[in-house]
Hints:
The chain is α/β, with parallel strands linked by helices and 374 residues long. It has helices spanning 54-57, 61-76, 84-94, 99-117, 121-124, 144-156, 170-184, 200-209, 227-236, 250-258, 275-287, 301-311, 326-329, 360-366; strands spanning 3-20, 27-40, 45-50, 132-134, 137-139, 162-165, 190-193, 217-219, 241-243, 264-267, 291-294, 341-342, 345-347, 371-373. The protein folds into two domains: 3-118 and 359-373, Enolase-like, domain 1; 123-347, TIM Barrel (Alpha-Beta Barrel), CATH 3.20.20.120. It has 14 helices and 14 strands. The strands form three sheets. It has a seven-stranded parallel beta sheet, with helices on one face. Strands 3-2-1-14 form a four-stranded antiparallel beta sheet. The chain has a three-stranded antiparallel beta sheet with strand order 4-13-12, with no helix packed on it. The longest helix is centred in the first third of the chain and has 19 residues, at 99-117. The chain binds magnesium ion (MG). Residues 193, 195, 219-220, 244, 266, 295 line the site of magnesium ion.
Amino acid sequence: MKITEFVLHPLRMPLVHPYALSNAYGVLAESDQIYIEVKTDEGIVGWGEGNPWPAFSGDTAASVVCVLRELICPALLGEDPTNLNVIHQKMDALIAGCKMAKAAVDMACYDILGKSLATPVHKILGGKKYDTIRCFWSVGGSSPEESAAEVLDIKKRGYWGCMIKIGTDYKNDIARTLAVREAVGPDFPLIADANQGWDYDTALRYGKGVESVDLLFYEQPVKAWDIASLAKLRRKLSIPISADEGVSTIQEAMALVKADACDVFSIKSSKQGGIMPAKRICEYASEHGVRLFFNSMIEGGITQAASLNVAATSDIMMTTGHSFFSTLRHKDDVTDFAGLVVNGITTIPDRPGLGVTVYDEKIKQYESSPVAVK
Ligand SMILES: [Mg+2]
């Protein structure tokens, strides 16, 4: 099989409500989703997605489109999309980093591979261990009262746990966390995510202030590169520590394990650069006693489906839900992924490929200038 054409569809999707994050990111009102359509000489079409977020990943919508249009797509025309090893080797030889562009191509190639075998991607990855995975939700910054009411509503809607976005004024974040725990009771799983918002001292103050509320884990309290502070916090606090921004590559995963710096890796298929590198990090984590949390960027249905296929085959933390609500945070999605999430339960799709349908009319509705490379 050969790739005959790529079509890039840059989408901008508004969120239902503005999403207030840490000092490092501010408030988000919309997300960029770069959809890629990969066509083949056998008539099979695969879909991929990249999720540029400048302050998080170092990519912009324009930079992802540029890297794909100028470098990656022209070099992969004529290649076999079902040979993921060669696809990744070629992309890595062309340009370092640029994970959002590479992730989009990786997902589309897995989609083609699955469709060509009439097999879901999770089967290609070794087979699913679950038929369903619980879903959690995540809330942005606000007052303690608003946070408590919001998380209580999420609990009532059937979601299995909630992430509280922190990383701004640490005293308010302590008050919010205590108020949420008071509102939802002792058994509802809670996670706090500071999104790199603090230095070590502030991160420690927050951690000490919430040790009594039994957080399931505390994510990325300090900058992605600051493994030493992460390790120090892990020793000083009784709360498990998670790396998210700090674990994009397998080499970063190895450095975190070597430094004994975290208990959990937050896995996102686009942040990791696609399904193949994400699966590799999951296996490394599993072999080194690091638990997995399937998280999401602010992303659409293709990236969500890619992560769900990886999660289905992994040894995951079963004590909380995982992040398959991202399409519901947006005003719309160009796929049917949201239909897999019902009453806080995510069903693993058994359809060929990634297992979701992309609607052409919705792509047209939300895309700015599509780009064809053939
Ligand atoms: Mg995070």
